[in-house]
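The instructor's notes for this session suggest beginning with a concrete chain rather than abstract definitions. Hand out the sequence below and ask the class to guess, before any prediction is shown, which regions might be ordered.
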Amino acid sequence: MAFTFSAGSLVKARGREWVVLPESEPDLLVLRPLGGSDDDIAAVFPFEPVEEARFAPPEPTDLGDQRAAGLLRTALRVGFRSGAGPFRSLAGIAVEPRAYQLVPLLMALRQKTVRMLISDDVGIGKTIEAGLIASELLAQGEATGLAVLCSPALAEQWQQELRGKFGIDAELVLSSTVSRLERGLDLGQSLFDRYPNVIVSTDFIKSPRHRDDFVRHCPDLVIVDEAHTCVAAEDTSASAQSQLRYELLRRVAEDAGRHLLLVTATPHSGKESAFRNLLGLVKPELAEVDLESEAGRKQLALHFVARKRADVRQYLTKEDGLADDSLAERTAFPSDRYFKDETYKLSPGYRALLDDAIAYAGERVEEAGSKGNREARIAWWSAIALLRSMVSSPRAAAQTLTTRSAAAIAASAEEADKLGAPLNSDAADSDAMEGMDVAPGAETETDEAPARSRLAELAERAAQLEGPEKDLKLKALIKHLKALLADGYNPIVFCRYIPTAKYLADQLENDPEKKKRGPLGAKTVVKAVTGELSPQQRIERIEALAAEAGPDAAARRVLIATDCLSEGVNLQHHFDAVLHYDLAWNPTRHDQREGRVDRYGQRRDEVRVITLYGDDNGIDGKVLEVLIKKHRQIKKDLGISVSVPDELSAGVTDAIVEWLLMRGREDQDALFSADAFRVNKEKLENDWNSAAERERASRSRFAQRSVHPEEVAREVASVRQALGGAGEIRTFVRESLGALNAVLRDNGEDFTAQVGGTPAGLRDALASTVGAEVIEKDREIPFRTDPAVARGEAALVRTDPVVGALASHVLNAALDTLAEGARPARRCGVITTDAVNTRTTLLLVRYRFHLTLPSRNGERQLVAEDAQLLAFEGAPRNAVWLPHERAAELLDAVASDNTDPHFGERTMTRILGQLPDVNGYLETYGDELAAELDAAHRRVRTASGEIVRGLSVTAQKPADILGAYVYLPAAAPVPAGPAGVTA
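After discussion, reveal the predicted structure:
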């Protein structure tokens, strides 16, 4: 027998009630449990008994108090996973976007094919913005698959973000995973057909062998992370890697029907032509558009969003053109970075070693110069490797002195540069960072026995300098770390090389097995993370450090890291200070390091940054003066970072090294007047100032104007009305936990809860979100008003899993009158209050809507839910319906007198018996809601005419009366009940 139930119908099967989903067929019902999630969807065949279900009316004997209606309403709305509004995905994702993060989403939904360049500043949340667009396009059927192109070091983080926050499961396509994935393919099948959602290493897929298959089978939605690394300026010699990445993206972008999101905080990279090439990937015509004209800027504004923190720190305020601050949102970014440059001097032994190393390197460079260009370049890179490792640490120096130079195998000068530059310079190209923290080598194949003996002797001397007595740089580090720890900070120490990071960890950490106590105190946990670990192992090491430090307020964390952590990994929840132990030779790298902690979610208002530099090593002071301080000043003036082109910073550092090799450390004051240095410095400053001025002008000219704050405010208000705001969630969590016998402790706007005394069902549900140990040992669960929380904390937003588990428990307990334990929410109540002058009835009504959403991939049939508060005065037959604002106000009504339970039960019985008289109004109101939702969908997609044709929203009837609450005026002659009894 075929099924005849329409989508949205309520049916009863397998002992519970379900909602029929649009995917159902005459011979197969696809059902979602009433109040359940998509994870609980089931299929039912015709041989199983299925009958139409009517939502049971409230029981008049099951009366709740004044809080019952509000708690039930919030519990219901938190459980919605398919809101009826124009943003299909917002109800189902596990992140509460900031209002400003909706701007790129609104821009995207106005395009038939989404093409965008998202260039918000570091730490604003570009990953969230891209994820919102992706989840919405997938939910609407506008996209059928997703590919994220990123650095291999960031691939696992992208996978976790998409899965944890947006419910998108994506396979990792990396050089280390592709063989396993391909083994499961059918004959002739592409893995990009087998796996609709993938996260792909840009470096792996850019080679012609893999690129062609990817382009042929590429998903219809592509996100490119750190997109600036995929283009190069026309007036510079682009690396072969950059050219391959650009060719890959050019071919992906050629399909005009493919959605493409380019994400980068540095779209210019100091070069206008690179910016133009980036725009050309978004839309070919943007590469040539006149951006000086108003028409050109308007054309770009449809596809480009670039905001700094000052633009969004306070949003939707009167300063943005709104009538009031009722929707104002303030985002707690750290207000500033506190910079302090601290110097150290070399010990006599270290100074002598460095002088001998400089002399040796200078001799080798001079000698090689007479043998040809190849030998000269090999010697040059060996000299730089030797000098940089010498000023890094004794251990890095010793390893470099006994390791062969990577450039030594080069067959030409050009190849020597390709092999030597990545290991010895600090290019801003993030794709080149993986594996670049190994100590470079100084030996060459031309080194004869005396030279090798000399290197070995230098290495032996370097090894003897370990420890704070002879290594005064380490001694200075310990001093500054102690000061940071004493002030309550948890710092990250960034090093250039793996041996240096391991050396520092050995010197600083406590070792109970060897009964060794480190210099930072017994309660300070120190761990090192380097490129020797896989990206996933790095995250695990950091989490282990945090867990080992534990919740003890006196415990401190110190992370020693190389630049394998300077991009992508967000560390603001565990750390709040950065100490640069080794200076980077490109200041962009310093900004990347600091950006790991200075971002949204950092609780410190001021992030401390200490830069340690050698006063007398001949290199650090000049790098700091010419590059690092200049970069800071530009950022302070503009509010954003402006990259210095790699070739210009390399020109300056090359001049410093060349002078050092020729003149030694003692003649450094004359360096600034040397012709080669002056020319390189002037060119750097001129180009850098020009880039900063272009960035200043572009931020003004290209400020996000395609979506006005009023439009954002309207959609934010609509979302909050449908799904609930932060204030509602906070009240719900506090009142529900309190009623369930949890122990609450206030901490400003935040609070903590111990749930050991709550019902077993709730404890079991919470154990899967906060951890079984927290529940078993009855530890405090911190609840934060700031949605950016650390692991083990709960955010007071509807999408937090702890809030979801609590809401599910409260809702299920309210629907089950036989449930054991406390039941904070009830489906009915009678309250005597001063808030009304005549008898008023409040109804909590659940509407289900059948949506037909046309897309370029065909129509999608969906079922969505909405909860509404409706209130009327008088009897149901002659109801005087109140404005919606007045209905919502009743949730805050306070009982002024006790109500006799028997009287309350009789009153409730009478009202419930008369409620069929309001069904006509409920149906009419449902139709009005459907019309409003239809208009909202069309409004959001106003620029995509083809998409809205065929769109329809229909209310499923009858609506469900989930709760009914009667409010009686205090002056009415109500029989008094026993003291303390409220209903």
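Then share the key points. The longest strand covers residues 952-969. The CA atoms of residues 435 and 719 lie 45 Å apart.
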